[in-house]
């Protein structure tokens, strides 16, 4: 067995188990703090991945490499943002050269990972540290789609509240509300098919398009229906009906404008100069 890998495993195992004593002993006896274990993981990455913030702080004090990459191309900053209350650690990693917007080999940024983990405090900390919505990852997902497509789900109230906080942060940071991933799905498609009814009003208010189709030709309401999410389908149908009603009102207003233009073109030209020529 490779002695280096075995040493790295021992370091990572101690980090994951909050074993400060073993870590100190290994490092004091000459073990390189960044000796990689399985999958290229350093003890610092192992600590951050498992939420051992005090261990991570200790390793940084022992000069752990803040930009060490594991085999997936993820660095400590990717894992720090995915755990709660790591604001100070995120700052320390940045001070040591970590790129707050750096991507792994599949295009995942720290902000995407935090969204996938539904970690609202991590998203808040990353954005305050300068993280911004990036180009989509290899799956074609933006940060918003990473959140709504998360394997961790939004099935309980706490996660749903966290998701709503994250969505607000992402929208304020300029994430594209109608971006479609490699399957043609938008945030509204994902929310509809997973019955995330609590976030749908926020998406609609932000301009989510009810008419965009997936590569299979499904609109958001169809995605809800074929997945058995009848209450979500009903909500979307009500929204469509409301838009149809608003459209009818707008058309009535346009008819009145046309009548005004025909009745007195000179006055109408002053009141509606930008639309007169297109409406005659």
Q: Terminal Cα separation, in Å?
A: 83 Å
The proportion of residues forming helix, as a percent range, comes to 55-70%
Name of the CATH homologous superfamily of one domain: Ankyrin repeat-containing domain
Low-pLDDT sequence parts: 249-254, 267-280
What is the 3D shape? elongated
Keywords:
mainly alpha, elongated, 280 residues, Serine Threonine Protein Phosphatase 5, Tetratricopeptide repeat, disordered C terminus, 0% strand, single chain
Chain-wise SSE layout:
Layout: H1 3-16, H2 20-28, H3 43-49, H4 53-61, H5 76-80, H6 87-95, H7 110-116, H8 120-128, H9 143-148, H10 157-172, H11 187-193, H12 200-205, H13 220-226, H14 230-263, H15 265-271, H16 276-279
Concise structural overview:
By secondary structure, this protein is an all-alpha fold.
């Amino acid at each position: 067995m490779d002695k280096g890998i075995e040493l790295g495993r021992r370091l990572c195992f101690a980090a994951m188990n909050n074993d400060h004593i073993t870590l100190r002993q290994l490092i004091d006896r000459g073990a390189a703090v960044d000796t990689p274990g399985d999958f290229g993981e350093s003890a610092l990455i192992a600590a951050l991945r498992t939420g051992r913030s005090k261990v991570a702080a200790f390793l940084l004090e022992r000069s752990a490499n803040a930009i060490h990459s594991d085999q997936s191309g993820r660095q400590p900053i990717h894992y720090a943002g995915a755990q709660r209350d790591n604001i100070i650690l995120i700052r320390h990693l940045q001070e040591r050269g970590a790129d707050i917007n750096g991507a792994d080999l599949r295009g995942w940024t720290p902000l995407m990972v935090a969204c996938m983990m539904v970690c609202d405090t991590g998203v808040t900390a990353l954005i305050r540290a300068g993280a911004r919505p990036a180009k989509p990852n290899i799956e074609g997902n933006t940060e918003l789609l990473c959140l709504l497509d998360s394997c961790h789900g939004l099935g309980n109230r706490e996660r749903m509240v966290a998701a709503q906080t994250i969505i607000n942060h992402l929208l304020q940071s300029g994430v594209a509300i109608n971006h479609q991933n490699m399957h043609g799905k938008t945030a509204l498609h994902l929310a509809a098919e997973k019955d995330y009814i609590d976030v749908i009003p926020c998406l609609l208010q932000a301009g989510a398009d009810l008419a965009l189709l997936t590569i299979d030709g499904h609109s958001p309401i169809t995605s809800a229906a074929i997945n058995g999410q009848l209450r979500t389908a009903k909500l979307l149908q009500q929204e469509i009906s409301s838009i149809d009603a608003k459209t009818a009102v707008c058309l009535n207003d346009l008819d009145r404008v046309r009548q005004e233009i025909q009745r007195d073109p000179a006055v109408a030209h002053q009141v509606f100069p930008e639309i007169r020529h297109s409406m005659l």
